């Protein structure tokens, strides 16, 4: 990751620099770094204790070296982060540095424990005390007080030079005060007598007499604090494991295949866009690209959270970091370095963890004045007990206990550790949040505005059935001619028709060829259609009249055929797909369709309400009757030959009722077949909508598609509020209206047309496969493109909020209870040190529970989400060249882009 990014504005250029800050131990340190950086003109900083990083916004004229000097002037270390991980030496260097620091801390802890245990045992067990035992303890405690506690003394002195007090100041003063009092007691207070015995009490004595030694506090305070810091550091390191796991997915080298076929392994940094590389079974895909040869199944579980392997073949897009589970792949690189999807995911997670929640800002503000306040309280307690006539020993004990028991660390760690663990866990589940504010927003939303195409549905068109006229060319011939013409189109309808024709020839479900015999159906047909029957996808075909139909299979449409509507029986199979014929004179007319000549025939694939062609085929006059095409008010009027036969009209009407798109195949101006296409609902959409309702959220469907398409999807998913034919402006206005009513609104979408609504909502959520504009405007991105992840995100946000509240309640409650107890002399310094260390460890351990959080799906919802059968699709009636047909009359789709 680049350490510095620059933004140019109308007034002055600003930059953002990220620094690694060392030496921070509590929230007071965070406050001091932010305060020092904030004193520089035009500079603002956000410092995160859990990650040890500072994100600094500053004028472009301020250099990183100047910022680091300011941080170092505050008594801390500062450095720029390493470049984007991708080479082994850098990763190894970071690991060596971390290992060295951990080893040093562990060595100090072990030596301190070795010296401290005898002192603690002898001080707490009077029966083990022997002559001059206290002098042995004094000898053992001295290196602990000096060397063992040296990190606290060093940071306290550094803070003193900068007129600042931190948690280390409290620990250092507590150790020095206990050691000094013990030395005074041994040398001048009578505690050095060879036969001196000291009883152990949890509550210190307020009586006078012979001065006691507090050597157990001298060794206990640094020992417990060192243990707490080590456990805390390991726990904080664990909370960032998700980000490190993402970084570890990046390949270190790649097998590049040159134009002459030779292969060579090179470092990943030398891979360039356009290079071709080989992915062997078991290897990771080096970077984002497109498969040019080979086929395999890819495991994306560590990248997007998808558990099922994804098939990849020529033309398929692949994601860097995915594991090749099958055959050999040759891939053309489409993105490298920071532009890859994996790098963007890691950047989003890192940005989220660098942010600061509102609760954390409050805690940091409290912690900023906490240490000075504790010092003032300790001095006040000392003076009060001395003034009240208590012995100096009692007064010092109470003051030392106040210094030691105070713990701003818990305040500083309560929120960032929870957010760190939650964002990491979210990344593992395919949920990326832009920052703490996004998690807070997820917890508060009560209304979710859902886009349809690409969000609730797959966003890709598929043919769901073909119905041919009974006395015409037949379904197979019409489909073959349509695919030949559509081969020259880049429109989604054209791609779907070609794909379906290829699937049919490859052995997909087939129906009658031209004039093939059909068995009569026992199912009643629609009113006025004797002997008509409904095919597997809900399309109407006339079995009695001998019409032929091809119904969409699961392979083609993505929806299995329902068992109560089998494919037509007793029909001959289509032959293997022959080579599609050549097409000449191809034209694509926006709002109408495509046309071209196959031999001497004019083949058109057009909207059901499209007028006759303006150009007749060679050797034929316009219109089937040989007359000139008629017009009414400038619009073409279909001739008798152009009007749809009853069976085709019924198929179009059925498509309109089901919210699907129908196109008509015309050959020489005669309607020969109707091809019906539709979008399919994502399997996770059922579970997502059901879970959102269970969580108390109200789903609202807003789409640019037709009313029929929108209502069909809404009815299937159980959504009651629908806004169809909504433009981007309409969606943004809907969001404003809902917010004006007091609703807290989240918007989920995937297209450019959703950007305004995403930006205007309380919370924007984008699908991972959406456009860059949509993802950029969103606060949350669902990487695995599973709508079920939305409900998981809400649950995770609520669990995180509960964890933060628990942490803060403990941190504030601990200090509110223990400080008064220490001030009145009811806590010994050693017990106070143990309590202070435990408080920090408990806060971090509670946050770590989020790492293992698992969404628990409802059985009912899971049953709905996994059920078989064709999902009610939404129509792509908004395409430029095609439209949806209404129930009984033509209903042109909206002219805008996909919803």
Automatic annotation (TrEMBL):
Domain HMA, chain residue ranges per copy: 15-79
This protein's record includes keyword ATP-binding: yes
Listed PROSITE patterns: ATPASE_E1_E2 (PS00154), COF_2 (PS01229), HMA_1 (PS01047), HMA_2 (PS50846)
Protein family per UniProt: Belongs to the cation transport ATPase (P-type) (TC 3.A.3) family. Type IB subfamily.
InterPro entries named among the record's database cross-references: ATPase_P-typ_cyto_dom_N, ATPase_P-typ_P_site, ATPase_P-typ_TM_dom_sf, ATPase_P-typ_transduc_dom_A_sf, ATPase_P-type_domA, HAD-like_sf, HAD_sf, Heavy-metal-associated_CS
Biased composition (Basic residues): 621-633
One GO cellular component term: plasma membrane
Bias type Low complexity, positions: 507-559, 610-620
Protein name per Swiss-Prot or TrEMBL: Cation-transporting P-type ATPase B
Any one Gene Ontology BP term: copper ion homeostasis
């Amino acid at each position: 990751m680049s350490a510095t990014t620059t933004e140019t504005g109308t007034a002055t250029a600003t930059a953002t620099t990220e620094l690694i800050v060392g030496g921070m131990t509590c929230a007071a340190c965070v406050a001091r770094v932010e305060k020092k950086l904030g004193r520089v003109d035009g500079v603002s900083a956000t410092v995160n204790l859990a990650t040890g990083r500072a994100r600094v916004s500053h004028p472009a004229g301020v250099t990183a070296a100047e910022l680091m000097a300011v941080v170092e002037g505050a008594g801390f270390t500062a450095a720029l982060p390493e470049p984007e991980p991708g080479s082994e030496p850098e990763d190894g260097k970071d690991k060596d540095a971390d290992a060295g620091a951990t080893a040093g801390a562990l060595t100090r802890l072990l030596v301190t424990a070795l010296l401290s245990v005898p002192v603690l045992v002898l001080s707490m067990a009077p029966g083990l005390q022997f002559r001059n035992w206290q002098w042995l303890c004094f000898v053992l405690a001295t290196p602990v007080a000096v060397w063992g506690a040296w990190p606290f003394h060093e940071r306290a002195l550094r803070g003193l030079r900068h007129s600042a007090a931190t948690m280390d100041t409290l620990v250092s003063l507590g150790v020095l005060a206990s050691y000094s009092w013990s030395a005074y007691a041994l040398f001048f207070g009578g505690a050095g007598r060879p036969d001196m015995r000291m009883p152990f009490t949890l509550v210190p004595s307020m009586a006078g007499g012979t001065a006691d030694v507090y050597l157990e506090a001298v060794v206990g305070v640094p020992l417990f604090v060192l243990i707490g810091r080590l456990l805390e550091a390991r726990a904080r390191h664990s909370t960032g494991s998700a980000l490190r796991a993402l970084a570890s997915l990046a390949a270190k080298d790649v097998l590049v295949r040159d134009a002459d076929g030779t292969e060579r392994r090179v470092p990943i940094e030398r891979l360039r866009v356009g290079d071709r590389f080989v992915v062997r079974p078991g290897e990771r895909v080096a970077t984002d690209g497109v498969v040019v040869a080979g086929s395999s199944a890819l495991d994306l579980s560590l990248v997007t959270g998808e558990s099922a392997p994804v098939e990849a073949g020529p033309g398929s897009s692949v994601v860097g970091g995915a594991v090749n589970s099958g055959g050999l792949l040759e891939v053309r690189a489409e993105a490298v370095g920071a532009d890859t999807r994996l790098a963007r995911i890691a950047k989003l997670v890192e940005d989220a963890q660098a942010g600061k929640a509102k609760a954390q800002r409050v805690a940091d503000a409290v912690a900023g004045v906490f240490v000075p306040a504790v010092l003032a309280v300790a001095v006040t307690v000392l003076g009060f007990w001395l003034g009240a006539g208590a012995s100096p020993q009692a007064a010092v004990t109470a003051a030392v206990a106040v210094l030691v028991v105070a713990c701003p660390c818990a305040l500083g760690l309560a929120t960032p550790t929870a957010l760190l663990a939650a964002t990491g866990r979210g990344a593992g589940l395919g949920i990326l949040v832009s920052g703490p504010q996004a998690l807070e927003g997820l917890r508060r939303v009560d209304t979710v505005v859902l886009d349809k195409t690409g969000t609730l549905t797959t966003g890709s068109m598929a043919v769901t059935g073909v119905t041919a006229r009974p006395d015409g060319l037949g379904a197979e011939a019409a489909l073959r001619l349509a695919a030949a013409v559509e081969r020259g189109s880049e429109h989604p309808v054209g791609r779907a028709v070609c794909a379906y024709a290829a699937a049919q020839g490859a052995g997909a479900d087939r129906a009658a060829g031209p004039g093939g015999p059909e068995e009569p159906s026992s199912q009643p047909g629609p009113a006025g259609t004797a002997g008509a029957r409904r095919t597997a996808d809900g399309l109407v075909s006339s079995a009695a009249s001998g019409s032929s139909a091809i119904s969409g299979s699961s392979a083609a449409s993505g929806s299995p055929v329902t068992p109560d509507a089998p494919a037509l029986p007793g029909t001959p199979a289509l032959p293997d797909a022959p080579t599609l014929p050549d097409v000449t004179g191809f034209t694509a007319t926006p709002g109408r369709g495509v046309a071209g000549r196959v031999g001497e025939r004019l083949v058109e694939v057009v909207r059901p309400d499209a007028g006759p062609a303006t150009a007749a085929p060679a050797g034929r006059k316009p219109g089937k009757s040989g007359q000139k095409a008629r017009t009414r008010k400038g619009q073409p009027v279909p001739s008798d030959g152009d009007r749809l036969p009853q069976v085709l009209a019924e198929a179009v009407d059925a498509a309109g009722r089901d919210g699907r798109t129908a196109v008509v195949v015309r050959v020489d101006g005669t309607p020969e077949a109707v091809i019906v296409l539709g979008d399919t609902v994502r399997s996770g959409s059922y579970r997502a909508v059901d879970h959102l309702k269970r969580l108390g959220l109200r789903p609202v469907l807003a789409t640019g598609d037709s009313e029929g398409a929108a209502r069909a999807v809404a009815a299937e998913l159980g959504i009651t509020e629908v806004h169809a034919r909504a433009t981007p402006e309409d969606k943004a206005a809907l969001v404003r209206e809902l917010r004006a009513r007091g609703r807290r609104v989240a918007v989920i979408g995937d297209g450019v047309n959703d950007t305004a609504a995403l930006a205007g909502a309380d919370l924007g959520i984008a699908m991972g496969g959406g456009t860059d504009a949509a993802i950029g405007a969103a606060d949350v991105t669902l990487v695995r493109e599973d709508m079920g992840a939305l409900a998981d995100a809400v649950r995770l946000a609520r669990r995180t909020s509960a964890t933060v509240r628990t942490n803060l309640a403990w941190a504030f409650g601990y200090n509110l209870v223990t400080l008064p107890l220490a001030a009145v002399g009811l806590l010994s310094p050693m017990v106070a040190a143990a309590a202070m260390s435990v408080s920090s460890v408990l806060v971090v351990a509670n946050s770590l529970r989020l790492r293992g959080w698992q969404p628990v799906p409802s059985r009912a919802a899971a049953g709905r989400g996994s059920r078989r059968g064709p999902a009610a699709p939404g129509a792509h009636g908004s395409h430029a060249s095609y439209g949806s047909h209404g129930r009984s009359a033509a209903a042109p789709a909206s002219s805008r882009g996909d919803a």
